[in-house]
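ligand=heme C
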Amino acid sequence: MVRGLTILALLLTPISGALAAADLEKGKRLHDKQCVSCHIERYGGDGSQMYLRRDRIIHDRVALGQRVAACNAMTNAGWFPEDEENVAAWLAQRYYKFK
Ligand code: HEC
């Protein structure tokens, strides 16, 4: 799993422009602060059903990155691209587990 993520991070580096490996802990913190409440409002619990629901709209890592960037803009969270990358990496590892 960790090795898979590392490879994924290496593959995505040219796309995202991120130089450092994703900081998953930071991603989780940012997500919990700026994003989760709205998803909880919709699905209850810890909001994770947003990412785990059967008809979820995100199916690959590139789309996830784009969605996180769009949500960042929508919420005026003011994240830097590396913050978006940290959140996307954390969501991918914790929930989406793309094959
Ligand atoms: C104002 C409420 C709100 C906030 C704040 C919000 N979201 Fe969302 N989010 C939604 C809704 C509603 C959907 C479902 C959209 C749909 O079904 O078309 C969604 C869907 C998503 C999805 C796709 C889920 C899937 O189906 O796979 C991701 C990823 C996501 N949000 C990430 C974030 C991130 C990251 C943030 C913080 C920057 C954030 N959201 C903040 C309301 C919100």
